[in-house]
Amino acid sequence: MSVPLDNLYHWINGLLSAPAILYVFQPHGSKKISDLVWLTSYNYDSTYKLPSAILHDQEPLDWNSYNCPEEYINLDRWKKLNNLEIDNLRFEYSCNFNLKSMILALSSCMYDRDILIHSEKNSEDLIKYQQNGFVGVHYWAHAVIARDWYRFAQFDTRLDAGTQPSHKFLIYCRDWSHRREYRLKFLEMLVENNLEQDSLTSVMHTNSDNVHFSQHRFSNPKFELANTESISQIKNNTFSSATSADYDYSDFIDTEISVVLETVFDDSRIHLTEKTLRPIACGHPFLLAAGPGSLEYIRSYGFKTFSPWIDESYDLETDSVKRLEKIISSMKQIQQLPGQEFEDFLQAVKIIADYNKKHFFSDQFFDTLKSELKNNLDQAWKSVAQSRGKHYLELMRSIRRQNLMHQVPFRREKTQFIRQLRQSYPVDRSNPQEDPAV
To answer: What are the beta bridge partners of residue 259?
Structure first.
C-alpha cells in the first residue's frame, strides 16, 4: 500500500514557528543521501534566508552511513550550469559534513546549525549529530502514523469476537536483515524452550537481502545460532514490508498476547515503531523486545504496562542476549500458568490492554504528541536562528582566493542578511573567534 507520509510532513511544516526548508528521503524508506530532497518547491534565490530541517523520523539515525565524502562529491544534481567554477568549490567544501553535506550544497548556508527531526532516545548517533551542527527535535513519529494506519481498530467489532484462541503468543517476525538479526536468536530460543508450539509466528527463511538464514554472518557473534535447524521449524513467510501499515484481526483473536520484535534491539537507543503500537491499537497485551528502557518510554506517554502480571524486568537488562533470555523466561512463566491462574492473568492484563487502546485513540494522547513536537520545534528554531554564517563565510574565502567573487549571485544581499542575524542574536563577545567579520 502507499503510505502518504508527505501529508504528515506538511502537517509538521504547519507547526513550525517560522518558515524552513524541509528535507525528506524520496522515495520514502530510502537511506541514500542522493535521495534527500526538498519536501516542496522553494524559490532557490531566496532559500538562503531559511533554516533547514531534515525529517529523519522513520528510520534510526546512522552517522556512519553518511560519513564517506567520496559518496557525495559526484552527485550531478547538485551542479548548476551557470556557475560551474563556484559549484566545484562549493562541492569540495560541502561534501565533508555528513547529512549536512546536502544542505550545504543545495542552499547558501546562512545558518550553521540545522534541525534534525528524529524519533529516538538514548542515541549515540544523535549525540554525534548534535556535536556537528544539528539541533535534535524528538517526537514519537510512529505513534502519529499508527493512529492513522490502525484507526479502524477503534471500531472493529471483530477484535472482540469472543472466540477461543488457539495460541498463546502472537509473534510477527518478517525480516531479520541488518540490525534485526537478533530475531533469529530469539526464534532459536523459542524452539529450544518449546514455546514455538504455543506461538502463531513465521519468518522469512531468505531475507530481504536474498540471504538464507543458514548463510547469515552475524554482526554480533553473541547471536550466532547453536542449531540452525531450529529455524527450519518456523513457518516460512514472504510478507511485504507494507504489512506493517495494517492489522489482521484474525491474528489477534486467535492469540492471547503479542510478543513485539522491534527493529532496534541490540542497541542502547529506544526507537519504537508501529510494531509496538499495533497490539495497543488492537487491545492486545504484549511483551516488548526493544532497546532497554522502552517500557518506561511507553509509560511516559500515559500508557500502562503489565507488571506484576508479567515479569518486565527484561526491560532493564542492558545485555542483549540476557534481555532475550529474560523475555523467553517471562513467556515460559505465562505458558506454565495452570487453568484458573491463567484465566485470572488474562482478565488482569486485558483490563490494562483495554485502557491502553482507549488511551491510544484519545485526544489526550494526540495532544501530547503534538505538544511535544511543537515545543521541541520552537526551541530548535530559536537555537538555529542564532547561527553565524560561518560556512558561508568560509566558502567566500575560497571563492575570493580564486578571484571569483564577481560570479557570486546575491552576494550583497546575503552579506546584509548575516549582519541582520547578528543584530538580532548578539554574539558572545568573550569568544570573538566564533563570529568572524563579514
So the answer is: 287
pTM for the structure as a whole:
0.91
Classified as helix, coil or strand, 151 is: helix
In whole angstroms, what is the distance from residue 116 CA to residue 95 CA? 18
| Cis upstream peptide for 4 (omega within 30°) | no
Answer whether 392's CB lies under 8 Å from 414's CB.
yes
Each residue of 20-55: pLDDT tens digit?
A: 999 999 888 788 887 888 999 887 777 888 899 999
Using alpha carbons, select from 274, 297, 299, 277 the residue that is nearest to residue 286: 277
Q: DSSP character for 212?
A: B
Cis bond upstream, residue 308 (ω within 30): yes
CB 20 within 8 A of CB 115: yes
Distance CA 309, CA 127 (A): 36
- Summarize pLDDT for 68-77 with one digit per residue, the tens: 655 655 555 5
Domains and CATH numbers, the chain: 5-142+371-434 (no CATH), 155-362 (3.40.50)
Largest CA distance in the chain: 86
Separation CA 301–CA 243 (nearest Å): 25
